[in-house]
Amino acid sequence: MNLTPYVELLRRELAVAAAAGGDEARELAERLTAPLESAIRLTLLEALSAATTEITRDLAPGSVHLRLNGRDPDFVVTPAATERPVAVDQTPTVPAAAIDEPVSSAGDKGGTARINLRLPDDLKARVEEAAARERLSVNSWLVRAAGAALGSGPTVSGPAASSGQRFTGWVR
């Protein structure tokens, strides 16, 4: 992704705004834009990095990474496994909560499976609140919780880190 058009657009917008202040303001804006180019690029990269973090959170277990290629960022998208889910429970009942999306971790030895999960209403509400707090789908949250309970699944760090830093991604 080439950031130059965005930097140039900001430079033009600054020139237009400075032109309203007269020749002295226009000249000052021209002198400032060259030294600010690095700061503008860095700010754009930080915004793109934050966006990839949010997208990765929504794509879990898929991910999006931002890499630099020279001065330009490139996106690397790793989609989740697209294996067809296998129906486990064929009963024609309507569950209190259904897991709709197939999810697999890098350690899966087989495909994914669809299950119907029946939860009491109060537990379902608490699961939905916990997933929303961590900005995960209910399915991703349940997969993570089941994996953590069994000591074998993928884990994603939550928004509250004890050290004040935040780490996101998949860990074995």
Automatic annotation (TrEMBL):
Q: Could you tell me which residues belong to the region Disordered?
A: 152-172
Which superkingdom is the protein from? Bacteria
Q: Which CDD domains match?
A: RHH_CopG_NikR-like (cd21631)
Coiled-coil-forming residues are: none
Name the chain's protein.
Answer: Toxin-antitoxin system HicB family antitoxin
What is the species of this protein?
Micromonospora thermarum
One short Pfam name that applies is: HicB
Q: Which InterPro entries did the record assign? A: Arc_rbn_hlx_hlx, Ribbon_hlx_hlx, Uncharacterised_HicB
